[in-house]
Amino acid sequence: MKKLLFALCLLFAVSFAHAQTAEEVYSKYLDFNLARMQQETDKALDLGEDILPNADKLTAGARNNFYYSVGNLYENNSQSVKAIECYEKVVAAVPDYYVAQRGLGYLYAKQADALKATGGANYIAAVRKALPHLEKAQACDPDDDTLKMIQYFYKAINDKNGLTTLNDRLKSLKKNCIDLLDDK
């Protein structure tokens, strides 16, 4: 009986101890990218969610690329909270990657718009969360719609100084822009 109990405990421990190796994670990452390129969104999302707990086993470049890509899939699949989590990881690692900054800015702007009717401190906090991301995106890849949104938000929260100094900030932010992630 003791041997049977020991064998069952050992089998149980071994089955849970099996962690994915870096090679297995990278292989899934390649499958994830292939599914995305073939526009197999559901398959890519499933693979992405399988990779997420082990994404730290990818190289830094592949990890950043993965987080951006899965974040983009989440965003396009109306899963804003998950998209934000992924984009935040990219921005923390590569702050000058303005594509992720734009994604974050627009998602935070969406949250701010949802709070607009309530106004007050929560709305202002949400706007202030969106603005730095929108400004980085605008500095690196000027867009009339983004600029109008930035200006609208400054006016909505009555931040005249922010609006007045916007051009100087955009010039400063333009100095370091990354438009492609290296997955090496």
TrEMBL record:
InterPro entries: TPR-like_helical_dom_sf, TPR_rpt
Species in which this protein is naturally found: Mucilaginibacter conchicola
Source organism, top-level taxon: Bacteria
Gene3D superfamilies hit by this protein: Tetratricopeptide repeat domain (1.25.40.10)
Taxonomic lineage: Bacteria, Pseudomonadati, Bacteroidota, Sphingobacteriia, Sphingobacteriales
UniProt keyword annotations, A-Z: Signal, TPR repeat
Renumbered ranges of TPR repeats: 64-97
Protein name: Uncharacterized protein
Residues spanning the signal sequence: 1-19
